[in-house]
Amino acid sequence: MSIIQEYNLLSKRFRTFYPVVIDIETAGFNPITDAVLEIAVITLKMDKSGWLHKEKKLHFHIQPFEGSIINSESIAFNKIDPFNPLRGAISEKKAIESIFKIVHQGIKLQGCSRGIVVAHNASFDHNFLMAAINRVNVQKNPFHPFVTFDTAALSGLVVGQTVLAKACKAMGLSFDNNQAHSALYDTLQTANLFCELVNRWKRLGGWPIQESKNKKIITSDTNI
Fold first, then answer.
1. How far is it, in rounded angstroms, from Cα 20 to Cα 33?
2. Is this structure's pTM higher than 0.85?
3. Catalytic site includes residue 181
């Protein structure tokens, strides 16, 4: 396999990490006490030319765990009725088991080492995910325990926007505010955003890294 072909493998792009886009809708801001209400996951793939694309998706409505807190302000914001029987909600454990299965399959297929959460303001989703995993005690967690890819930070760097809707529009992607704050829609848009950020960097010549022994690093102020 040539060096160029190796760079077009997903396992070579992110230090063997397998990026998994996640959005979690909750009934509050405390991952230990507040209920998870929705989880959506999208896995990614890289084509033979090294372009990143969406692959598989999962979406679950989640039953609030026993003793969890439901904050009225949060459900008024995301417009989720946690106790609506038409939601078809399942337990956290069933959802996490399904997520683990698809992530483990992707890691193996792509030759990666472990999953990494990709999310907008990623610490929020990562903290809720890890808290839910600890509650249900499902073994063989495929996700890195603390490293994430945050599309809010990446978008702030690339286009100067950190709000998901504004970042998408700045990147030339559509965004429907009426569908926002649904886990599935926000995950789809975050996945589109992350793929475009990665692919734009490639189009600009930033990947693969072109190493040169004679390359000079120029700063705006050599005294800094």
1. 25
2. yes
3. yes
Between CA 213 and CA 209 the distance in angstroms is: 13
Q: How far is residue 104's CA from residue 95's CA, in Å, rounded to a whole number? A: 14
Q: What is the pLDDT of residues 146-192, one digit of tens each?
A: 999 999 999 999 999 999 999 999 999 999 999 998 999 999 999 99
What the block records as the tokens of 139 is 């073994």
What are the beta bridge partners of residue 57?
A: 42
In Å, how far from its chain's centre is CA 192? 11
Q: Residue by residue, what is the 3-state secondary structure of 184-219?
A: HHHHHHHHHHHHHHHHHHHHCCCCCCCCCCCCCCCC
Please, which residues bridge with residue 40 across strands? 23, 59
Residue 207, C-beta contacts closer than 8 angstroms, at least 6 positions apart: 7, 13, 50, 198, 201
Catalytic residue among 59, 104, 144, 181: 181
User: pLDDT, tens digit, for every residue of 31-49?
Assistant: 999 999 999 999 999 999 9
